[in-house]
Pirin (Actinoplanes lutulentus), 315 residues
Amino acid sequence: MPAITVEDVLVLPRLPRLDPMTDFRPVRRLTTAPQGFEGEGFPVRRAFAGVPLTELDPFIHLDQMGEVDYAPGEPKGTPWHPHRGFETVTYMIDGIMDHQDSLGGGGSISNSDTQWMTAGAGILHIEAPPEHLVMSGGLFHGLQLWVNLPKRAKMLDPKYQDIRGKQSALLTTPDGGALIRVIAGEIAGHVGPGSTYTPINLAHVTMQPGSRLDLPWQPDFNALVYALSGEGWVGTDLRPITLGQLATYGPGDAIRVEAKTELDLFIMGGQPIREPIAHYGPFVMNTRDELKQAFEDFQKGRLGTVPATRLPHTD
């Protein structure tokens, strides 16, 4: 199913018209995501490749999964694997993904649903398409974002949030040219359902051809715009952006994007944590010693055990 939408965006709340003297953020960097494979072999674009962590903070990693139209028998997922020290945010646009973790959390997500897993002190989980989708094939498209946890929260008990697409705050631009889905944080007074340990904003935006998005943005947050599909321009100097490209913005009070074709965007920003990062594989800690401890704890079974049965699929 496609991402959640509305028949008439004009019934939605609208962004305020910004003052002509607004300090729009300049585009600092524009990068193109390399393509690769994850898990059991599903295609991804590594959206943050080539971008310094200082410009991403508090984010660590972003994969665009698909968009791919699988033939019967082709859909793939990941095997069971561990995490510690951060949060995984999996957002589905098309298709279905089942999730299960070693603490009994999980379920199915589709149609703008989000699985928000706080790994904290450690957890095992698996992500895979349901059996009926493996048999039938079909369209698969989503995102997985890794959000760092501050040192004070890295060893908290793991937590799971099941966020339905219909819970997202929906709003539009003054002329109705864009649909904005607020997943977490606050945009122009509209609050998303995701609960976070570090202040962040996450939004999925669909823009109509020829439309403009002037998005007010907290000045103490960083600002990142990733193009999921389509073509357009970013910044007041109208730098071209297309599928698989990430724009990082400099300081200011608002983000500008213009659409050439229908343009789908994932917009992120947050208050930088500004702590040391030791990252290797599925663990994101502050020091190398903490990384070594994470691997030791995983090898000794301290991050959980794989449940004997898989959660039943639910729509």
About this structure: The longest helix spans residues 288-299. The radius of gyration is 19 Å. The mean pLDDT is 92.
